[in-house]
Design goal:
The protein has 236 residues and is α/β, with parallel strands linked by helices. The protein has one domain: Rossmann fold. Helix content is 42%, strand content 14%. The chain contains 6 helices and 7 strands, in the order βαβαβαβαβαβαβ. Strands 3-2-1-4-5-6-7 form a 7-stranded parallel sheet, with helices on both faces. Strand 2, helix 2 and strand 3 form a beta-alpha-beta unit. Helix 3 packs parallel to helix 4. The longest helix has 29 residues. It starts with 7 loop residues before the first strand and ends in an 8-residue tail after the last strand.
Length: 236
C-alpha cells in the first residue's frame, strides 16, 4: 500500500469495462486516478460510481492534441504522472468484402495510433517519474480469425509496437507491459454483460488485480507480455 499510495495514473477509456475495473483496483491502493472517455458525461458518471477523487476528462485518443491536453490537466491537478494504462479501444468485425474504409480507419486509429498518441503525450512526464506503461491488447493480437481483419491488424500491431517501445524505454527505467486478455465480461462490441451468462469470463476486476500485481512486482522484474484467458470455456 505504501509503495503505490499517492502515485498518479491515467486510464484511457476508463468509464466502463476493463478501464473501469482497473480504476477501481488502483483507487483501492491509494493511487490517484484520471479517466478519459469520448463523452464527458460518461467519464463523470463513472467517477461518481468510483466514489473517490477521480479526475474525469473528455478526450479522444485519435486526437494527439486532446491527449496532450489530458496530460496538462493531470499535471495541473497532481503535479506528476506515474502510470499510463492505454486501454481505449474499439472493434469492427466483418469480412474484408464488407468491411468499410471508415471502420478500418476507426479501428486502426483508435487501437494503434491512439495508443501511440497517448504514450507520446505522456512520455515526458513518465520519464521524470520512471513510470510504468500498460497497453491493453488482446489474444486477437496473436490469434487471427475470419472477420477480424481490422481488429487483428490493430492488436497484432499493438503487441509489436508495445514490445518495441519496451526496448526503447527500459534505458530510462520505464517499464512497459502489454496485457493480452481473452474473453472479458464488458460492453465491448455492444455486448451487454450478464452476471450469470458471463460468469465464466475474465471480469474487469480481475484485470484490475492483474495491473496491481504487476505494479507490485520487484523493479528488476519486467513481464513484458502477459497472455491471460478464462480458465474454462463457455461450455465448461
Amino acid at each position: 500500500m505504501q509503495k503505490l499510495k499517492d502515485k498518479v495514473a491515467l486510464i484511457t477509456g476508463g468509464s466502463k469495462g476493463i478501464g473501469f475495473g482497473i480504476a477501481e483496483a488502483l483507487l483501492k491502493q491509494g493511487i490517484k486516478v484520471a479517466i478519459t472517455s469520448r463523452s464527458l458525461a460518461s467519464a463523470e458518471a463513472a467517477a461518481q460510481k468510483l466514489g473517490h477523487d477521480v479526475l474525469a476528462l473528455e478526450a479522444d485518443v485519435k486526437d494527439f492534441s486532446s491527449q496532450q491536453e489530458v496530460i496538462n490537466k493531470i499535471i495541473a491537478k497532481w503535479g506528476k504522472l506515474d502510470f499510463l494504462i492505454a486501454n481505449a479501444g474499439v472493434g469492427h468485425f466483418a469480412s474484408i468484402e464488407d468491411l468499410s474504409a471508415s471502420e478500418w480507419n476507426d479501428t486502426i486509429d483508435t487501437n494503434l495510433t491512439g495508443v501511440f498518441y497517448s504514450i507520446k503525450a505522456a512520455l515526458p512526464e513518465l520519464k521524470k517519474t520512471t513510470g510504468y506503461i500498460f497497453t491493453i491488447a488482446s489474444l486477437a493480437g496473436t490469434n487471427f480469425f475470419a472477420g477480424g481483419a481490422a481488429y487483428n491488424a490493430s492488436k497484432f500491431g499493438l503487441v509489436g509496437f508495445t514490445q518495441a517501445i519496451m526496448l526503447d524505454l527500459r534505458q530510462y527505467g520505464i517499464k512497459v507491459t502489454t496485457i493480452m486478455p481473452g474473453s472479458v465480461s464488458t460492453h465491448f462490441n455492444e455486448h451487454e454483460p450478464d452476471a450469470e451468462k458471463d460468469a465464466w469470463k475474465i471480469q474487469p476486476e480481475d484485470m484490475g488485480q492483474m495491473v496491481v500485481d504487476l505494479l507490485n512486482m520487484h523493479p528488476r522484474v519486467l513481464p513484458s507480455k502477459v497472455e491471460v484467458r478464462p480458465t474454462k470455456t463457455a461450455n465448461g
